[in-house]
């Protein structure tokens, strides 16, 4: 079965990382993939091309770039059996290609429940939604939003994100020594892009408040983004207790060195950082948003706290510090759940099943 995958770019990001894992997973399962990006190439684009995946860069300058749109439209000459898209521009062009060829169109929606959509994006989505063969969400919490956008209930499928097993290259002790952490420190690591929706300020506030009750608690912020400089100033003014590490290539090592991996977001789908933490048997402390409850079972694999509530977050950090044995048990339970539901292999299996199902309707497929 030949699949045309369209997306805006394959740069660094949770959804893009998932696609970077999904493509080779589908190839291993006998699918022929042709991957095209509309606006930018990106790290995962280059990796897929190096791995021998057939790729194309369209080079659209904007949504209204007519010549670029025509170049994308011509990708249908490869006669795919299914068109698979991610992002609204790709959805629009993918729908046009699928309509011309009479093949199914599958949309991937990674946005979390309550994510803000600009009015024009919502309107464009409503043009596509009733016509797709299937839309894939990463969590059931997305379904109400998808229904409001016009996707048919019987065409919504839920396939959780999956990640590859993480393999640290250094020991916990080596990393902690490198960071200058006291052996007795209880380390909470926020791993996220530093932008407003991730609310890293809530995490910093929580660590500061938790340290007033237990000085062993120490925070790490792993990631870069538009709020890095602002957050660095905040941590300096708050005093010792939070280290800003920026973007790192050794995230698995840093997670291994931590006692818990954290998120403080306002909105999420099913974030990969949480799944990666679970693969390393680390408990998770996160705000209770989006699809987090699909992975973080309160009191079993970690803690869920109300969003924008640093006091509740600080309570969870103190609980982490008070009972290390319980935290280790939570991490072990999280690893078990990861292996059952959130591996890259499980994600690829589910997509392969879905694409095989909708692809078998190619010659019978009709738009409503």
Name the CATH homologous superfamily of the largest domain.
Glycogen Phosphorylase B
Q: Sheet with the most strands?
A: 7 strands, parallel
Overall radius of gyration: 21 Å
Net shape? elongated
Structural class: alpha/beta
Count the strands? 13
- Here the CATH topology of the largest domain equals Rossmann fold
The helix count comes to 14
CATH class bucket of the largest domain: Alpha Beta
- Order of SSEs: EHEHEHEHEHEHEHEHEHEHEHEEHHH
Low-confidence stretches: 364-368
Which sequence of strands runs across the widest sheet?
3-2-1-4-5-6-7
CATH architectural designation of the largest domain: 3-Layer(aba) Sandwich
Number of domains: 2
Q: Summarize the amount of helix as a percent range.
A: 40-55%
What fraction strand? Answer: 15-25%
Taking the alpha carbons of the first and last residues, their distance comes to: 24 Å
Average pLDDT number: 92
What oligomeric state best describes the polypeptide chains here?
single chain
